[in-house]
Amino acid sequence: MLKKQTKGLSFLLALLLMMTLLSGCGGSQPAPAAPEAPAEAASPAETESEESADITTDVVIIGSGGAGLAAAIEAKDAGKEVIVVEQMPIIGGNTLRATGGLNAAGTSSQEAAGIEDDADTHYADTMKGGYELNDPALVRILADEASGAVEWLIELGADLSDVGRLGGSSNNRSHRPTGGAPVGAHLVEVLRTSAEDRGVDIRINTKAVEILKDGDNVIGIQVEDNSGASYQILADAVIVATGGFGANGDMFADYDAALTGFGSTNHPGADGVAILMAQAAGAALIDMEQIQTHPTVVPENGYMITEAVRGNGAILINRNGERFTNEIGTRDVVSEAMLAQEGATGFLFFDEGIRESLSAIEGYIRQGFVTEAGSLEEMAELMNMDAAVLTATVEAYNAAVASGNDEAFGRDDMPRSLETAGYYLIEVGPAVHHTMGGIHISPEAEVLDENGNPIPGLFAAGEVTGGVHGGNRLGGNALADLIVFGRIAGKSAAQ
Ligand SMILES: Cc1cc2nc3c(=O)[nH]c(=O)nc-3n(C[C@H](O)[C@H](O)[C@H](O)COP(=O)(O)OP(=O)(O)OC[C@H]3O[C@@H](n4cnc5c(N)ncnc54)[C@H](O)[C@@H]3O)c2cc1C
């Protein structure tokens, strides 16, 4: 009875703690509606009362983002007992923040929309976007398995019926919920529910601090919860699904000094500490210096404006009201063009038609990021631009849409002209967004050592790994990566 009351009280305390941390999280991207803490999650007080007892399970997964949850579901479906540990007070990691879409070619959603696409084109776009630095074997799996990942998510209850295009893709293949709603929070909710329904034990506020080995074999992890309790979770297999290091300013500046002082779009848990932990357990790291900036981040608060705004037709203009780049070029190229503008920022510019095409924009308006005007002249006045220049820019772009030929910047996908008042503008600049490098894995998601041999019992998936995206990740490919390789890691670990 006493234990029951303690449990109820501690769950309330955990919720309160979670709300407090959420409101003052300090992360650059305000978190979207967070999934609730799972009813079975260990709260601080609960682990205090049951602290220090070591636990044994079949598979333990570090990280509750998309990769960790996808792996958990697959391992559970293969008949294994699964524990997921998450260092933050909420589930979801950076996956919770994903907005634009999940890339896959040859899906039922594309077919329903009459979009022709195939895995070979997805493969070619990904290799080209990554400057061919990608591991071809991993990219082949990504491209071949992504459509199966979408169908699997739909079977679990996801709505991925809206299909748009993000930079560097030849076809519309970025899947998201109806109306272009943000994809990440939706996927985390679907995955979390599916994992919980299967009885996966998800422990928030629980940080992995060491990967345990017996000789060459990985045998579990050492964890600490936020009450200070420390215990071991012994398991036949450990999956590292801890995301990247985009929130660790010192770490990304160490690998690329040009990024010193840059802001980040990442959640605070993207600290990269687990990458070093895996390295200490013998893992080889690859491509660590490949770090991506995202070009459209609100400078004052680091909030990322999804690439889908440009994908749905927005243009980028500078302080003079002129376009300066192919807006749907790869992120590195657009970021560089932006940094060359006065003030090292630019403006996303779009009209009512684009606003109506993407419901994510309503969130940006609610949060006060958007300058609105009823006419081009009014917008020019508000932004202290020359109205004639802004009007000429818009007219030239609309002519390019009509002819299908963007002579100025070679943009090949111009789905909408800019001719329906009102007009909207958001100031944006680059910030660190994705870390392409990380733990070296095999196509089976086994962690490889410096000699290219699998470390028995150790697996990894998602942004914590390197090799899939090469020198530059295409928008929409991270979600594909973490579901495809998260599922593979779960199945491999279960074996
Ligand atoms: C603002 C934003 C928008 C994005 N939009 C898109 C998009 O539209 N499409 C797309 O494809 N990609 C997008 N991305 C990229 C994508 O969201 C990430 O690459 C992806 O979510 C990473 O998933 P993951 O499961 O590997 O890691 P995460 O989702 O980051 O989860 C890792 C989890 O591990 C936890 N963790 C870390 N270390 C430990 C430890 N030692 N112990 C316990 N837990 C630990 C973290 O706290 C975190 O919760 C976006 C990223 C951001 C930041």
Overview of the molecule:
This protein is of the alpha/beta class and 495 residues long. The protein contains 16 helices and 19 strands. It has helices spanning 2-23, 44-49, 66-77, 108-112, 119-129, 136-156, 184-197, 249-255, 273-280, 308-311, 331-339, 352-357, 360-366, 376-382, 387-403, 477-494, and strands at 55-62, 82-85, 102-103, 162-164, 174-176, 201-203, 206-214, 217-225, 230-240, 285-286, 291-297, 315-317, 346-351, 371-373, 423-435, 438-440, 446-448, 454-460, 465-466. Helix 3 runs parallel beside helix 7 and helix 3 (66-77) runs parallel beside helix 16. The longest helix is centred in the first third of the chain and has 22 residues, at 2-23. It is elongated. Mean pLDDT is 90; it is low at 1-50. The structure holds flavin-adenine dinucleotide (FAD). Flavin-adenine dinucleotide binds at residues 29, 62-68, 85-88, 93-95, 97-102, 183-184, 207-208, 241-243, 265-266, 269-270, 273-274, 304, 434, 462-464, 475-479, 482. Residues 29, 62-68, 85-88, 93-95, 97-102, 183-184, 207-208, 241-243, 265-266, 269-270, 273-274, 304, 434, 462-464, 475-479, 482 line the site of flavin-adenine dinucleotide.
